[in-house]
Design brief:
By secondary structure, the chain is α+β, with helices and mostly antiparallel strands. It is about 45% helix and about 15% strand.
Length: about 525
């Protein structure tokens, strides 16, 4: 009992120990905040990486792909059907995107992805990153009349306002076509409404847009051809979903400006599936924008209907009608072990023809970098608590020297060396418990109010602390893990106890006669 009373007395009266308590408190609070933010960041990043890549990816090694994806999907179900929830075939090829802006052609390299709008949602979360509510509910490559989001659906009211998107859709398309026709009448554009293709003269685009020349027109079929003329005021080309970073640029004031919008036409140039491949191109109409807030995706990905891309690339057997695909996206049932299913499929399909990997395998370098960053931060922050431990060590040695006479009296009254040692160990545990407990409360309160604190700091400093245009997210993401909080608190208390071991051993080894000789 006397040990507890002495620990409590020292805790209340030895204000020099307050410095150690503050160090432990700040260390624990900082580690909880950092780990919660990093966990939230990692979770959100993985969720968005996972939105494009399904749980498993079954793909060919070359751009020519593999035949009959429906048969391949049936074979996949025969091998691992109990673990598979949904699948969809895709075709992915490099391409060049070209469009006109301000009288000039803009050309950018992209990754062109052909998707099946009926089954794409069965294998991933592609739809939730689109800008039209109806497309998020049920994807369609048809241009919507209007109703596109003026703020990103990911950020809600926190997203930046995009007033120009109010006119996106058929309203924008009609205005653009009318303006183009005025330029055609003025002789500034050709009859197609598009300047010549930048890569080749006379490149054949969408044949439906070509205005027939008078000498090529059969006079007896003039009426029929007139009825087949493509009217952009009422018709669209094949639909296309464009990564939002490809459609925008940032001005000097830091605001996003749109180069193209839903309703505009663009041209894609890409290789065929033949050997050797040749370049083909076609005109597409933007029907929606894709925004995941992952620059790797938003600045490179373009989505078109799978069937159209297969036809343009020559991935349809003319005799049998059999189609080809370059990959199959596989979504697993909840609780299924992706690595185990991957290994089972790898054993069933020849590796020289197919590559089978999980989405983590494909993003392994990025995920490992985030994990390594978190580990290094934990080591550096834990050194703050270690510094507090050295402070406890120094303070306890001072207490032993100062209380030598008291230790001698206790020993002469019958206190054992183990009892004396227990006093100092208990005192160290008390310092660690108080510091870790207060730090835990402070850290959790900070995490729960972190976005409000960031907003307050922005108002005070006049500078946005967390700029959504720089980071992936509109709010600071946090996830509090009870296990992480537990090991931080226990670790801090362990350091405090370990720091008190040497002073406690020295106090326990004092002989009562030597301690009282000069008293």
């Amino acid at each position: 009992m006397y040990k507890l009373l002495l620990c409590w007395r020292y805790l209340r009266t030895r204000y020099i120990a307050l410095a150690s308590i503050i160090s432990v408190t700040l260390g624990v609070a900082t580690m909880i905040v950092v780990n919660s933010v990093m966990a939230g960041f990692s979770h959100e990043m993985q969720d968005r990486l996972h939105s494009i890549l399904s749980d498993l990816v079954f793909e060919a090694h070359g751009l020519e792909g593999f035949p009959d994806p429906e048969w391949q999907m049936q074979e996949l179900r025969n091998v691992a059907g109990d673990a598979i929830e949904g699948m969809t075939p895709t075709v992915t090829v490099p391409a060049m995107l070209s469009f006109q802006y301000g009288g000039n052609w803009i050309t950018r390299p992209v990754q062109l992805v052909g998707i099946d709008e009926r089954t794409q949602q069965d294998a991933g979360d592609f739809g939730k990153y689109l800008q039209h509510p109806e497309n998020r509910a049920a994807m369609s490559f048809l241009l919507r009349e209007s109703g596109y989001d003026t703020r990103s659906s990911l950020g809600g009211n926190a997203g930046h306002e995009r007033e120009v998107m109010r006119a996106a859709g058929w309203n924008h398309r009609r205005q653009r076509v009318q303006w183009q026709r005025q330029l055609i009448e003025a002789g500034m554009l050709d009859d197609e409404g598009l300047p010549p293709h930048p890569f080749a003269e006379g490149a054949e685009g969408d044949q439906a847009t070509a205005a027939p020349k008078a000498r090529d027109v059969d006079p007896f079929a003039a009426r029929e051809q007139q009825q087949n003329v493509f009217d952009p005021l009422r018709e669209q080309h094949t639909g296309l979903v464009l990564g939002i970073a490809l459609a925008t640029y940032r001005d000097r004031e830091g605001e996003d400006r749109f180069l193209v919008m839903p309703g505009d036409d663009v041209r894609l140039t890409f290789p065929t599936a033949g050997t050797p491949p040749r370049a083909v191109d076609d005109v597409f109409t933007i029907v929606d924008l894709y925004e995941s807030k992952m620059s790797e995706y938003d600045s490179t990905l373009v989505f078109v209907p799978l069937a159209k891309l297969q036809e343009l690339r020559g991935m349809v057997d003319p005799s049998s009608g059999q189609r080809y695909a370059t990959s199959i996206q596989i979504k697993l049932k909840p609780g299924a072990d992706g690595d185990a299913v991957r290994d089972k499929l790898r054993a069933a399909f020849p590796p020289e023809q197919f590559a089978i990997s999980t989405w983590r395998d494909k993003q392994g370098a990025l995920l490992a970098a985030v994990q390594m960053e978190t580990a290094i931060l934990n080591v550096l922050l834990f050194m703050i608590i270690a510094v507090a431990g050295f402070g406890i060590l120094a303070i306890f040695f001072m207490i032993v020297v100062e209380k030598t006479r008291d230790i001698g009296i206790l020993k002469s009254l019958g206190a054992s060396g183990r009892g004396i040692m227990g006093i100092f160990l208990g005192y160290g545990l008390s310092l660690g418990a108080v510091g870790a407990g207060v730090g835990m409360v402070m850290g959790l309160l900070f995490v729960w109010n972190i976005n409000g604190i960031a907003h307050l700091l922005s108002l005070i400093t006049g500078t946005e602390v967390f700029d959504p245009s720089i980071y992936y997210f509109y709010q600071i993401p946090t996830i509090v893990s009870p296990w992480t909080v537990s090991w931080i608190v226990v670790g801090a208390m362990a350091i405090a106890v370990l720091a008190s071991v040497l002073p406690a051993r020295r106090a326990a080894s004092l002989h009562p006669v030597e301690a009282l000789r000069y008293e």
